Amino acid sequence: MFIAGPIATGDNFIGREKELQYLKNFFSGSNNYSLTGLSRVGKSSLIKELLIRESESITSGNIEVVEFSLTPSTREKVVFSRLFQRMLDVANNLHNNQLIDEAKIILSELENDSIDAERVIELSKLMFDQKGIRFLLIFDEFDYAPDVFHKYLMTLRQLISASKSINALTVSRTSLVKLFPLVGGGSVFQGVFIHYPLKGFATADVDRFRDKLNVKSDDRVNDNVWGRIRYFSGTSPFCLAFWCNAYLNVVKEHGNELDVNSVIEEIEETCIPQTDDFLFYQCEALKRLGELGNLKTFIKAITSGEKNLDKNGFRSLNSYGVISWTDKTLTQPYLKDFLFKKPDANIDLSELRDLAPIIDSLIQDCDSKLVALFGRGQAASRISTTVTCHRRDLQAIKIKMNYELELSELNAFLLSDLTDEEINLWKQKIGECRAFLDNV
């Protein structure tokens, strides 16, 4: 079977030779790398496979790899403690009292909530000069770094930028520019990392999936079956593995009993709901990154046959691997159909549009009533407090309503979390406010 979701290494790891060849420079050079890509594109699997393949060179090359998988609750002192403890372990293995004493001082200072970056850099230099030892820090789930690094963020930057023997590789869904932005543009880590975006599979790697599927099914996969798998999966490692597993299950259960169309129906019935969930999650991520509107614009443009597209407007989508700028297509053809599916929610959006001007009018009435009764000062009283509370409720409703309307217009496929009960509650509050203002 194929690995869909969990980390895949060894025999379960497919393709990515070009990416592995590029990233192996991390183990032989002095650069820091930032690996980015959307969820389930295979970032963690790539790094794990890289470590396995480079294990011999790591051992023989005096390389110390320190891995971290960050969470929102990770404490930054724990991160530095692990690095400094590794430095002490190396010093002990070298039986060098000078290095041991320095490493112990660094650890004791950390216990007192202090880091002398220059001292750490000097220690790493001594280890490199004497034995060629390098420390490579690998941070998975670096999206949580803003929750982790506060006091010692610039210390981390100083260590990996100023020391020629301490380097870092970060793995994240979001670029470092967006994780640690500077006012006016740029990033805290500007110029420190080489950015490497991980996209879906190249054509050659997708072909390897089919080759492996042929072997596992003891037969050559029918072109029509493979065409449907490719349509729904595109270049996504997760979707390819998921759909291929579904095909293998059908073959195992039915053998040669089903015709091609029946096989396709079976795997589509199994896989389309979860593929929709996968794309929903991916599109939510693109929305957070501010790219979902660009995606819909791109689809409309290529659907209408527009040829003169501004490349800059779709640069990020191309770097994420959602579109291929080379041939101006979606890397997952099914994404277009998914985007324009009708939501399952029964919310009548026209009703929201009808309520919007009513709420605006009532907010104005609240302001007018307060001025008429109490003047500009709006002296505190039971009536003024009640009117103010009504106005605050109306404003909150307006904000939520505008958000829902904007969401529905931009992302028609996204299901709203708005319910009929909540809309009825809004109507009730509107009625209460109107009745109160009419009777004051």
Alpha-carbon distance between the two ends: 72 Å
Largest sheet: 5 strands, parallel
* Beta-strand share of residues: 5-15%
CATH architecture assignment of the largest domain = 3-Layer(aba) Sandwich
How would you spell out the order of helices and strands? Answer: HHEHHEHHHEHHEHEHHHHHHEEHHHH
* Spatial arrangement of strands, main beta sheet: 2-3-4-1-5
Structure classification: alpha/beta
- What is the fourth-level CATH superfamily of the largest domain? P-loop containing nucleotide triphosphate hydrolases
CATH fold-level topology of the largest domain: Rossmann fold
Mean pLDDT: 89
Radius of gyration computed on alpha carbons? 29 Å
- The outline comes out as flat
Q: Number of DSSP strands?
A: 7
Please identify the top-level CATH class of the largest domain: Alpha Beta
Q: What level of helicity do the residues show?
A: 55-70%
Please mark out the parts with pLDDT under 50 across 5 or more consecutive residues, or reply none. Answer: none
